Structure prediction request, 654 residues.
Amino acid sequence: MTLAPEAPQAPPAPDRVRFQVSLHNFTGPFDLLLGLISRHQLDVTEVALSRVTDDFIAYTAALGDDADLEETTGFLVVAATLLDLKAARLLPQAEVEDEEDLALLEARDVLFARLLQYRAFQQVAALFRELEASARLRYPRAVTLEPRFAELLPPVQLGVDAAGFAELAAAVFRPKPPPTVGLDHLHASTVSVPEQVAILSGRLREQGVATFAELVADCEHGIEVVGRFLAVLEMYRARDVALDQPEAFAELRVRWAPGGDAGSAGLVDEVDEEDA
Amino acid sequence: MTDPLEEVEEALVSDAELLAALEAVLLVVDTPAPTDQLADVLGQPIPRVQEALEGLAAEYTERGRGMELRATGEGWRLYSRDRFAPYVERFVLDGQRTRLTRAALETLAVVAYRQPVTRSRVAAVRGVNVDGVMRTLAARGLIIEAGTDVGGGTLYRTTEMFLERLGLDSLDDLPPIAPLLPDVDDIDE
Amino acid sequence: MTDPLEEVEEALVSDAELLAALEAVLLVVDTPAPTDQLADVLGQPIPRVQEALEGLAAEYTERGRGMELRATGEGWRLYSRDRFAPYVERFVLDGQRTRLTRAALETLAVVAYRQPVTRSRVAAVRGVNVDGVMRTLAARGLIIEAGTDVGGGTLYRTTEMFLERLGLDSLDDLPPIAPLLPDVDDIDE
Prediction:
């Protein structure tokens, strides 16, 4: 991988042009971030992110009109996460781990996990390159028969009639079923978290408080229970409910308590993304 | 990074290496290859390669090898030596060569329903290398070259003999496969 | 009238003639030929032919010839010698075989280890849109559609050609990715 010859520790402005050129070496935000981490000789598993944040932001700023909307968005999402993390490190550490701290930790872990994953596939890709280079060194002889021998062959038989040939052609063009264990028999229903949120909001608004067991009593499939649990987490995050669980594995009580600004819907977004 | 080809080309300063390299290339030559093409592939002057080819042909004959290297009007190719033709014939007739293999039939099906079509397109649909099978189909008279596409790839179509073998008068009589396969056109877009 | 084959078979009492006859037959072999088939065609005992094949293979290697005689599970076949691959490649591919880009290789890696997998899932791992790359890989026959997932997304898997290109016999031969990647499957569930 080639990088701009100098690290942008110098003031970023004069380097803008060079950034723009370098950008095309990277095939996405993870690629860029990994590149920066390795340039600073940092281990991806260490808390390296605040040190590369400035570089990353600079690259992202230089994306300009060159990139399409989706590409820019990808970079911006990672840049925003990085800024968040860096800001958290600059501020005095609070004693209490409030929700925002947790969210930051979570964001960092997800980013690390994705980076690790991306790096693993990069290594596999390098291995593929080696395999490819060494694979086809011997080419088998496979040439047409000399006419004098070909003439000896009896007329070729297809062994099928026109209808059979069409059947065979259809089989060739039909997408092959993936080599997996079929899951169709397990469940057919898909569960949407927003839908579950709506159901639970309705009930809790009426009842005021309910145990989780009561809330899932009417679920037919395991996946609905999961969906409903995610919905509870989502409502907690949106500060629509309060949760009460005296100790681990104890009964979970969900109380309708619309309080904070019901804004963030990050969880829902993630779930939707997976469905897309 | 240095070009691996440059490294080995230097190795061809030895005549023995040049002969061996020629032999390696000749082994995969299907339609006779002209001297200049071989010289180009080996990165050597034409006269030197011409001389090497003649030397190799003479060597095969002197040593009584099972192969012959002969030049026709179009170029050079390896052939089985005449003297051993009876064995070769027996081998050729011995195999199950009257019926097409499943792989060949499937490849033929792709050509039939997508013609005119390039080899790489057929390979993409089949998901395997089809070079050998396509050559066999061509050799058996079931498919034939039909010009080139915009990208310069050779196009293939089925022949009259193919229709005969299926008992059809024209390609229009090929049973449609769309009913068997609703989304056929989406598959390799 | 005597059978011409009987006459020549007598000639095969000489080992040199047997080797040459084998060579002549191997020249038309286009899928690996088992020893017993070759013995049958030459009218010679299997052990003698087995020995001759091994002798021929050794001779090619000792003399540094351009071809190799190799036995796979199914039988014997002639190959170009690995050392000359750059020339053979240049001849066979005529510059058609382009190297895969890094983006293509990375995408292929994700498909290989996550198959069957949707395009959006691959994009999530790579952090970029992969539509164009996936199209290229499909057009080259390295990946192919494989039905749809429960959400209706098209699934992709790798092909035989992918294995062929990497020189692997089956997907089981792919190196394990787990050591590189703890808990990879938890990440984007």
